[in-house]
Design a protein that fits this description.
This protein is mainly α. It has 28 helices and 9 strands. The protein is about 55% helix and about 5% strand. The termini are far apart.
């Protein structure tokens, strides 16, 4: 029986569970038991964490001290059900740490992260508990378990074995210390990045210096200045400023200044410098891997990935490099030639690339972001993206204003199936703030599981950093922002449509190199006329996006795509370099990066800049030895979308197969098993090369 209702069916009394006056520790009396953000105060978190860990320890003690022989039910399932209160407390905290943080929350994070690490280690390194887990695992062939139960058993055993359970007592002490240190290092890395980004600004008082920038960007920069009680236009390093300046600013010196500020964050000394953090993180991960019998951290991680080992990762990266680099060189030469013809008597540099690429694209295809943005007003885009899910899967989205939110800009939707049955809560958070880290992501405030015959449905959130509305215009998205929305919405579908027995296997709880398939496949609908015709209308006139403009989007779809591919490959090679080291690295961080990325570089290398000090994905996120996943999943998504192309992009039968075999099942079976069940065969690289015009 699944008892994830935050009051476990154990000997613990209700009075032990509830903690009067702390909403985090009480049963939520809210719609769908959503988090009462309006009641939660910062001072509630630490006492809630402490109480929740106490309760978790009691639950673990009940499992360990059970006098009956270990069984799947009293050990594996009991472990799965334990810690529900701690999850209830930690989920809102760590989500807000990314989407609406402040100094107080960051201070709590500094305190609680090592404590949480110690708490987790105390469980996975508990010898008596592991003995019970091992006892069940050793009889797995005799147990009549279904596929999902087998996966839970395997995942539970692996979690212990791969986190030090088989170590000697001495090595367990070392492991605890290393993992505690790593949790703080990765936390500091991410916090440094946000603080360094937020502290930089540049006030422009001469409008001529901003020549080329679209009016809505100028309006946004004027609003920035007004908020700072300044006259003029205030530039910052958020994506909504950096991207447009790189793409449109005629002033080359301004582009260079912003580029250098952006690409030298956290590496020039000072309190937010991440250079030493990088060495410490990479070396700590190496020590952990060595302790667990692996030569490198990548060897440790890739065992539980579709790629399986470093050789397969490098095989994919190198195949893509060989396929795309000749085209990338031609793309660069074309941009250089265009720049020269238009008075640029210099070699095109990184701060020139977007600017001249955009102008060349406009000349070749008569297409710019500014031509498209009026047709991608955020409210209309939401209708379109939600409508795509309705067409494919029959689900509907109903706005719910009765659910408490953590910021006034957040909207909440009830997600219903084709019969009107509740599926999920969806939170949307679209615009940048000082308390929000950069990028875009999907997460959960609550996972999905079965409690007996009751399907406990998920609460999902998608967070973006899209262009804000101005005083004269609503939020108008670039086409890249639109496809980012589709991407994160794909992750949310994975979380919202799942139906699994166990929370730890549901939704996006899958191999890292499989998790991007449901997100990346959604991007394929972006340039499809049948899709755009349903919602893309001019925000002023209501005129439908012209067919000729959609054709231009299709025609320009692969413009400079090889360079974009090499950029992603460079990040993949860099990630693998840091996590394939077999001896501690004390050398030059910048040199390590340049060496790792060298064969992917087309633009002139700028020695003074670095990606590593702000590479949150691998140094403070979950993509260590996993950034290749984006390209791995791109092979999968191109191959999978080819079925939609063949059968019709809104084909119900194909969509139902994708839902049934991929989205619903979470991590209950090996991802290749699920993929082959949908596709009928293993994927090949051919569909990707064809889609990108390489083959």
């Amino acid at each position: 029986m699944k008892a994830k209702n935050f009051i476990l069916m154990t000997a613990l009394s209700v009075t032990e569970i509830l903690f009067a006056g702390n909403p985090l520790l009480e049963t939520y009396k809210t719609p769908y038991q959503t988090i009462p953000f309006n009641l939660i105060k910062t001072e509630h978190y630490m006492p809630a964490f402490e109480e929740a860990m106490k309760q978790h320890n009691k639950e673990i003690d009940l499992i360990v001290n059970n006098s009956k022989p270990a069984t799947f039910e009293n050990t594996i399932e009991a472990l799965e059900e334990s810690g529900a209160l701690l999850t209830k407390v930690s989920t809102p905290f760590f989500n807000l740490l990314g989407s609406e943080t402040n100094d107080e929350l960051q201070a709590i994070a500094q305190k609680i992260s090592p404590i949480m690490s110690e708490h987790g280690n105390a469980i996975t390194l508990n010898e008596k508990l592991f003995a019970r887990v091992k006892a069940v695992y050793q009889t797995k062939d005799k147990l009549k378990l279904n596929a999902e139960q087998q996966m839970l058993l395997q995942k539970t055993f692996d979690r212990f074995a791969e986190n030090g359970a088989n170590l000697s007592d001495k090595d367990k002490v070392t492991y605890k210390e290393l993992s505690k240190n790593l949790s703080l290092l990765t936390l500091n890395f991410g916090q440094n990045g946000l603080k360094e980004t937020n502290k930089w600004s540049l006030l422009i008082t001469n409008k001529d210096l901003l020549s080329g920038l679209p009016q809505d960007v100028l309006d946004m920069l004027a609003i920035n200045a007004k908020k700072a009680k300044k006259e003029g236009w205030m530039l910052d390093l958020k994506a909504t400023t950096y991207g447009p300046v790189m793409k449109y600013a005629d002033n080359r010196d301004l582009r260079r200044e912003l580029y250098m500020a952006y690409t030298t964050r956290n590496m020039l000394g000072g309190e937010y410098d991440n250079i030493e953090n990088i060495r410490k993180i990479a070396n700590t991960r190496l020590q952990i891997a060595n302790l667990l019998g692996k030569k490198s951290y990548a060897d440790h991680v890739l065992v539980r990935r579709m790629a399986e080992n470093k050789e397969n990762v490098y095989d994919l990266l190198n195949k893509l490099l060989d396929a795309y680099k000749p085209t990338a060189l031609k793309e660069y030469a074309e941009v250089q030639e265009y720049a020269n013809k238009n008075g640029a008597y210099f070699k095109v540099q990184s701060w020139d690339w977007s600017y001249y690429s955009e102008k060349l694209k406009a000349e070749k295809f008569d297409l710019t972001d500014e031509m498209l943005k009026p047709y991608f007003e955020l409210e209309n885009v939401k209708k379109g993206v939600f409508g795509l899910a309705t067409k494919l899967y029959g689900i509907k989205f109903v706005k719910n204003t009765n659910v408490s939110v953590y910021h006034p800009e957040v909207d909440v939707y009830d997600v219903l199936d084709e019969k009107g049955k509740f599926l999920s809560v969806l939170y949307t958070d679209f615009h940048p703030r000082d308390g929000k880290r950069s990028g875009a992501w999907m997460s959960e405030f609550k996972g999905q599981w079965l409690d007996g015959k009751t399907d406990s449905r998920p609460q999902v959130t998608i967070v973006m950093n899209f262009t804000r509305p101005t005083e004269s215009k609503p939020a108008l998205l670039t086409f890249d922002e639109f496809t980012t929305f589709l991407h994160e919405f794909g992750h949310s579908l994975h979380g919202m449509l799942t139906k699994c027995q166990y929370e730890s296997l549901s939704g996006t709880s899958v191999y890292r190199d499989f998790v991007e398939l449901p997100s990346q496949i959604m991007e394929n609908w972006g340039p499809e006329k049948e899709f755009l015709d349903g919602f893309a209308v001019h925000y002023k006139t209501g005129e439908k996006i012209p067919a000729a403009l959609i054709q231009k989007i299709k025609d320009a779809e692969n413009f400079n795509n090889a360079n974009l591919c090499l950029r992603q490959l460079s990040f993949g090679f860099l990630d693998m370099a840091w996590h394939s080291i077999e001896t501690p690295y004390q050398g030059d961080v910048i040199k390590m990066e340049k060496d790792a990325m060298n064969k992917t570089q087309i633009l002139p290398v700028i020695n003074e800049v670095s990606m590593s000090p702000t590479f949150n994905h691998i140094f403070s996120g979950g993509y260590a030895a996993g950034y290749y996943s984006y390209k791995w999943a791109e092979v999968l998504d191109a191959d999978a979308y080819s079925v939609f192309i063949k059968n019709g992009i809104f084909d119900k039968k194909t969509a139902e197969s994708f839902r049934k075999n991929i989205l619903v099942n979470g991590g209950t079976e090996h991802p290749m098993t699920l993929y082959k069940r949908f596709r009928g065969q293993e994927p090949t690289i051919d569909a990707l090369l064809k889609r990108n015009g390489i083959k």
